Amino acid sequence: MPHQRLGYFILLAIFLLLGNSGHVESASVGRHQRLTQVQFRALMETVARGWNSNNASLAADCFTDDAVYSAPPDTRVRIGKKQLFDFFGGEKGRDQPMHMEWHHLIFAEDEQIGAGEYTFTYKIRTHGAVIVRLVDGKIANWREYEQASPLDWDQFIGSNRF
């Protein structure tokens, strides 16, 4: 047992000495990949890029195989990367362009939980907020709350700017 702990501490020390430079893409604890704030932002931007380019595969690949995606109070819950791939447009893509723009993204690294405010346009414009939970560097849970509005973001938020 003491030798296992020593080995763990040696590996941890090497990781800390190397920092996040070179080919190290993310921190790992045991077998679980944990993202940093910068990597979280990149993941969420990849989802948006997938939607904005009508690339369902790019967006769906940001989710775990058993991801749960919901938009309360809508009772429809989409479960799994395959359902999300189809929902995001599948092989053929959606019939009209989508546009996702993030306004704020925040991330609690310790919990691997993040949130963001966004504007999404597909047939109608919505403004909303989403909270996500990550597992092994991918989105395992996505819960969004949104409001349809023809207003642009600045008009929508009014004087409550930050």
Features:
6-stranded mixed sheet; two-stranded antiparallel sheet; 162 residues; Nuclear Transport Factor 2, Chain: A
> H/E order of the elements?
HEEHHEEHEEEEH
* CATH 2nd-level architecture: Roll
Structural class by sheet pairing and helices: alpha+beta
Largest sheet: 6 strands, mixed
Tally of distinct domains: 1
Proportion of β residues? 35-45%
Total of DSSP H or I helical runs spanning 4+ residues:
5
- Mean of pLDDT: 86
CATH level-3 fold name: Nuclear Transport Factor 2, Chain: A
How far apart, in Å, are the first and last alpha carbons? 51 Å
- Unreliable stretches: 1-30
Strand line-up across the major sheet: 4-3-8-7-6-5
The CATH class label is Alpha Beta
Give the gist of this structure.
By secondary structure, the protein is α+β, with helices and mostly antiparallel strands. It is 31% helix and 37% strand.
